[in-house]
Specification:
The chain has 279 residues and is an alpha+beta fold. Helix content is 58%, strand content 9%. The protein contains twelve helices and seven strands. The relative contact order is 0.10.
Length: 279
């Protein structure tokens, strides 16, 4: 048995975006979705984001357009359009694909945040993703003033203190590390999106899909040893022994003192034994 081919049109598209000076978030998220939806017209979904920005623009004053007014109008339009968190089926993989989120107007925090970020960018406002523990947010920063929005909850507007209060609720007795309210890059947003998708597929035992998701994670973070290990484990289960041996060997070289190094080394020896048997 051999592992499924992963050098697809979607992968080539994604690799091309990673080579750009500024990684385009929406197109890269759609290139991820393109693996699951090979006939996806990603340009049509970029036009959908354009159309949402146009609807926001139409309700703004023609002359004075302060950032606060743009943000309030953005929240209003996207809420009226029906964008909301998918609480009923949070772990549905469709929640991690931007095309599905735009079609169904429901998703998880990170994909809904991507919609807010991309529509705001088209209006000349920079919103930043915030990797708040367990629940991605976006923020607008102007000097020392910061405003946070929660697209999963109808664009609820929060202050930094509100965020700290939320954290105290989920982690009693602990204070939020201020670094967790800093903005993150498009690359980091995509990594978190893919990690969510990876968890869904691994939990479902869907190794074929988990394989291409981990492959995209390694394209974003080539030096991540845990992803090399996980890809090797999936490849081994799919019967790609040579590919698995290469990845697991690379993992041990990069993380020789890892807690699971002994287990991985044992698996590697077992795989080597299989290749000798096959030969």
């Amino acid at each position: 048995m051999s592992i499924p081919a992963i050098d697809s049109k979607a992968r080539i598209h994604f690799a091309g975006l990673l080579g750009q000076h500024s990684l385009p978030l929406a197109e890269a998220a759609l290139a991820i979705a393109e693996e699951e939806y090979p006939d996806l017209d990603w340009q049509a979904y970029l036009r959908m984001l354009d159309a949402l920005a146009y609807r926001v623009d139409r309700i703004l004053p023609a002359v004075r357009r302060p950032a606060a007014a743009i943000i309030r109008s953005l929240k209003l339009v996207l809420t009226m359009e029906g964008f909301r968190g998918n609480e009923e089926h949070y772990y549905d993989p469709r929640n991690s694909f931007l095309n599905e989120v735009l079609d169904r107007k429901t998703g998880i925090p990170i994909t809904l945040c991507a919609v807010y970020i991309e529509v705001a960018r088209r209006l000349g406002i920079e919103l930043q993703g915030v990797a708040f523990p367990g629940h991605f947010l976006v923020k607008y920063a102007a000097g020392e003033r910061e405003l946070f929005l929660d697209p999963f909850n109808a664009g609820e507007i929060l202050t930094a203190e509100d965020c700290r209060d939320r954290y105290r609720t989920i982690a009693p007795g602990r204070e939020l590390d201020a670094r967790l309210l800093e903005g993150v890059s498009s690359r980091q947003i995509l990594i978190r999106l893919l990690n969510n998708l990876k968890r869904v597929y691994v939990d479902a035992g869907d190794d074929v899909r988990a394989l291409w998701v981990i492959d995209r994670l390694l394209m974003l973070s080539p030096g991540a040893p845990e992803e090399r290990r996980d890809r090797g484990l999936v490849e081994a289960r799919l019967g790609g022994i040579n590919a698995a041996m290469k990845d697991l060997t690379a993992y041990l070289e990069r993380a020789p003192a890892a807690p699971d190094a002994e287990d991985v080394a044992s698996l590697l020896e077992e795989l080597r034994g299989r290749t000798q048997y096959l030969n």
